[in-house]
Amino acid sequence: MSAFVIQNVRLFDGFRVHDGPCSVQVSEGKIERIESSSSLGTANRLSVIDGSGCTLLPSLIDAHVHVFRGVDEVKRALAAGVTTLFDMHNTPSNATYMKDLSRQSNELPEVFSAFHAATVDGGWPRAIVRHTTDDPTILASLADYPKLDTPRSAFEFVAKNKSMGADFIKLMQESAECLTFQELPAPSKELQKAVIDAAKEHDLLTFAHATNLRETLLVLDAGVSAMAHQFFDQAHTEEVIASYKKTNAFVVPTLTAISSMMGLGTAKTWAGSAQADKLLTDSSRHLLCDCMRISSEGCSVQYAYRCVKALKANGIDIICGTDSGPTIHGTALGAAVHLEMALYVEHCAFTPVEALQSATSLSAKRLRLADRGVIASGKRADLLLVRGNPTEDIKDSTNVEKVWKAGHLCNVH
Ligand SMILES: [Zn+2]
């Protein structure tokens, strides 16, 4: 693997913007050194990339996706500057296939997966899978979803997932109280606590799906590491903020998916903008512009925006994630990370730098990815070069010039 220097570039290292132009040297897939001078390349006779007019940042992390076997869609995530994906429920065969492929190929982001979520008989996500697809292979796979019932089954489930290669555990707390499905069987707090305790024994993070306040409180109280969505059925309360504070849980808001669940035109409007245009293909645009439309009357995206804003103001970590997947209406793998960050800035009182942190350094810290998310000596050279300055105007994050995954320049265009 060759060594190279990116020279004369504005540097956002995952935490802050450096003063003046910088040079970043990469060798053997890692950041070798960073200097404020522009002479690194010349002095060391390395190949030089001129970063004038551009910003170099850690490439992005999406903390909530579903990859299935959508290799082409996952490739597009890389082209959009996203080099790490957290896959939040998948069949073991798909998860293993995509994880292995993503480590062999320089053209795919690295995939981490929950494998099967901790589902109960008849419970979520069976209803949404039936709602969104008529693919017989996918529908047949529903029969193999876990049917947890006792704490013992929870412990066995976690041990089995871990042995298959699961990187974390996904919980499903969904009674369909604020969705347009009939009431669904959902796990008890006792069962969720058993799953979470077992995951802790195996040193695995836990992420819980919930869309309403009641069930968010239930899983937070059971000790979950993170919420995989922001709830949107009602305004937030002091109690939920106190619960996050007490447990130090973080939230992956997925405002992109929430807008789609509500049938809002948020993604469609964004897809029609100049900055989104270059990240989308005909098929990804088509999927992004469609909506799930599964939220009940009385829900509001404003509840979600205001809660994320309040959580952030109270010091709770907000980690960027979109719930994108090859068949998930209103999403787009890769491109939606840029939309999600823009929504944090527009609606949740984030500065552009804070939005970028939520998809880089802060994400890496909370997802326990010690090797990435930061541009510093010794870290993986997962890098994104964009034209303009996204640390002042978040829209510039979409001006992708180059993407490197562990020092490999990706063939993105
Ligand atoms: Zn999801």
Automatic annotation (TrEMBL):
InterPro entries given in the database record: Amidohydro-rel, Metal-dep_hydrolase_composite, Metal_Hydrolase, Metallo-dep_Hydrolase
Gene3D superfamilies per UniProt: Amidohydrolase, Urease, subunit C, domain 1
PANTHER family, A to Z: ALPHA-D-RIBOSE 1-METHYLPHOSPHONATE 5-TRIPHOSPHATE DIPHOSPHATASE
Annotated GO MF terms: hydrolase activity, acting on carbon-nitrogen (but not peptide) bonds
Name of the protein in its database record: Amidohydrolase-related domain-containing protein
Stretches assigned to the Amidohydrolase-related domain: 55-409
